[in-house]
Write a structure and sequence with these properties.
Blueprint: H1 5-27, E1 32-38, H2 42-58, E2 61-67, H3 73-85, E3 91-94, H4 104-108, H5 122-129, H6 138-149, E4 158-162, H7 169-178, E5 182-186, H8 193-198, E6 202-205, E7 223-226, E8 230-231, E9 237-238, H9 243-246, E10 252-253, H10 260-279
Parallel strand pairs: 1-2, 1-3, 4-5, 4-6, 6-7, 7-10
Antiparallel strand pairs: 8-9
Helix pairs in contact: 1-10, 2-10, 6-7, 6-10
The protein binds guanine.
Length: 284
């Protein structure tokens, strides 16, 4: 059965839209998201366009601040400080990747924790690690929402996460663990990948290689979540999972496109709304 991320993200966005409207009626203001972009990475251009379009759909005010490729760490940090001090800004994201001369970690960690709607800063990551309320990385947060939507309870299940990035793999493992899954994280140095994947009740793959997960790596009845965003030989978007064949053995599977991707954007908007509510001390 398909885990329809597109439909679930629409449902989430409709709820956000309604809440934004209600809050605007009471407080005469809407949440504001600022996206900081450096250079013209083609994938980033597409992601940002989709983020701005989705923000407009739900009534969140979104602004893009664009810098040329040769911007310095100090110039970027100065902009982040200004946004931190702007009471009308609720969410700040720095679109990744950044050019090599910039220090991604240092820059992201300058974002005020209450406005860190990507959940990439050390404080929000630390809170997640401790199971405390935090702004959570949008992609794994969206995957948890998707599983909840389909009443999939992860407690006691063996979840295998393939990929250990700071954006997806690591926070995904912690979110699953916080909901009582037994979690294994695999990566490029894992020697017996196929055997580990075959033990998974829930298999999440985020490695960025098309057809990386094949049918023989999936236990019959497993739930398969594909975070990949790759281009195939014909230039079409495809995930990390050999969908056509894996679909035959999995109980649930996310398609690409229309699976995890749309949820990432919906959860970024949810985080922006949550940040607006928390920063103003609004009781909901
Ligand atoms: N680059 C790829 N995914 C993301 C994301 O979720 N947030 C940001 N800021 N950059 C990204």
């Amino acid at each position: 059965m398909l885990l329809d991320g597109k439909a679930v993200s629409l449902h989430i966005k409709e709820n956000i839209k309604e809440k934004v409207l209600q809050l605007n009626n009471i407080y005469n203001s809407v949440p504001k998201l600022v996206v900081v972009q450096v250079g013209n990475n083609p994938a980033s251009n597409v992601y940002i366009k989709n983020k701005l379009k989705a923000a407009s759909f739900v009534g969140i005010d979104a602004e893009l601040i664009h810098f040329e490729e040769n911007v310095t760490n100090d110039e970027l940090i100065d902009t982040i400080h200004k946004l931190n001090n702007d009471i009308n800004v609720d969410g700040i994201i720095v679109q990744l990747p950044l050019p090599k001369h910039l220090n991604e970690n240092d820059i992201i960690n300058e974002i005020d924790n209450s406005k860190d709607v990507d959940g990439f800063g050390l404080v929000n990551k630390g809170k997640l690690f401790c199971g405390l309320d935090s702004l959570k990385s949008a992609t794994p947060f969206g995957i948890m929402e998707l599983l909840h939507h389909y009443n999939i309870n992860v407690s006691g299940k063996h979840a295998v996460v393939v990929g250990r990035s700071n954006i997806v793999g690591k926070p995904m493992a912690i979110m699953l663990l916080n909901e009582n899954a037994t979690v294994t994280v695999c990566h490029s140095r894992t020697t017996n990948l196929k055997e580990v994947c075959l033990q998974a009740d829930i298999l999440v793959c985020a490695v960025g290689k098309s057809k990386f997960i094949t049918e023989d790596m999936v236990k019959p009845g497993a739930i398969v979540v594909d975070v990949g965003m790759n281009k195939n030989e014909e230039g079409k978007l495809c995930g990390d999972v050999d969908f056509t064949n894996v679909e035959k053995v999995a109980s649930y599977i996310t398609p690409v496109p229309g699976g995890v991707g749309p949820l990432t954007i919906a959860m970024l908007l949810q985080n922006t709304l949550n940040a607006y509510i928390a920063r103003r001390g609004i009781k909901c």
